[in-house]
Write a structure and sequence with these properties.
Helix content is about 0%, strand content about 50%. The chain has a single domain (about 10-160), classed as Jelly Rolls (Sandwich), CATH 2.60.120. A six-stranded antiparallel sheet has the order 1-12-3-8-9-10, with no helix packed on it. The chain has a six-stranded antiparallel sheet with strand order 2-11-4-5-6-7, with no helix packed on it. The chain starts with 7 loop residues before the first strand and ends with a strand. It has strands at about 10, 20-25, 35-45, 50-55, 70-75, 75-85, 90-95, 100-105, 110-115, 125, 135-140, 150-160. By secondary structure, the chain is an all-beta fold. The chain is globular.
């Protein structure tokens, strides 16, 4: 990223709890059996309350046990999350970088999460994986009175090759 060039911005207000979101499509657009892959490059101005990845279209951002497979950034740490709507699996990956690439891959048996290197898996989940169709969401939530700014440099939905 050079001179803050970016594809689009998500900016929340300065009122605590304000949410800004990007939702791709107006319904759930993919199924885990299609082996979807979500890839995104982000520049973060703050690293408090951000989530992005595959979600059930009908759920509101930042609610507990959202169906999906996604990254959660909270208090400077990045987490990999899978949830079937009732139970969730959450793995801390580590400190968040202000600029990074992230990838989520569904396979026939698990969900793989990548941060930075798109070749080295940072977390693999085999539990609490929803069978429902999902869409892509990117959301930020104001923490205290600090506006969240998420700069998206690139976003892609592809799929793994079936063997």
């Amino acid at each position: 990223m050079h001179d803050n060039h970016n594809f689009l911005n998500i900016v929340t207000g300065t009122t605590s709890g304000s949410i800004g979101s990007l939702i791709l499509g107006n319904a759930n657009v993919t199924n885990k059996n299609d082996l979807p892959v979500f890839t995104i490059a982000l520049k973060l101005e703050t690293t408090d309350q951000i989530e992005f990845g595959f979600f059930d279209y009908s759920t509101s951002p930042f609610t507990s046990n959202q169906k999906g497979a996604y990254f959660k950034i909270s208090e400077g740490k990045v987490y990999a999350v899978t949830s079937d709507g009732t139970n969730k699996t959450e793995t801390e990956i580590g400190e968040v970088s202000t600029y990074n690439q992230y990838r989520i891959e569904f396979t026939s048996s698990d969900v793989r999460f990548y941060v930075g290197s798109l070749y080295d898996v940072d977390a693999t989940h085999t539990t609490n994986i929803t069978n429902d169709n999902l869409t892509i969401k990117v959301s930020a939530k104001t923490y205290g009175s600090t506006s969240q700014i998420v700069r998206i440099d690139g976003i892609a939905l592809t799929r793994l090759r079936k063997k």
